[in-house]
Amino acid sequence: MLVNLFEVLDKPHDKRLKTLDKQLAAFPYVSGKLYFERILMAAFDQEMRDMRRKARLPCIV
Length: 61
What we know:
The protein is mostly helical and 61 residues long. 36% of the residues lie in helices and 0% in strands.
C-alpha cells in the first residue's frame, strides 16, 4: 500500500525496521517531512462507485 511506502520514505535508513521488505528498504529517505502528515484513504463501496460512474467523474487510482 502507498501508506507503507510513505512511512518508509519518511524514515532514515538507520531508523527503519530491520525486517522491512527489501524492495521497500531500497527506497531513499526523503527529508523535509513531506510524508509526515497522514491522510486517511477513502474506501469506496459498490454504491459509491456506481454514483461516481453515473456522475461521470474520473477514477483516480
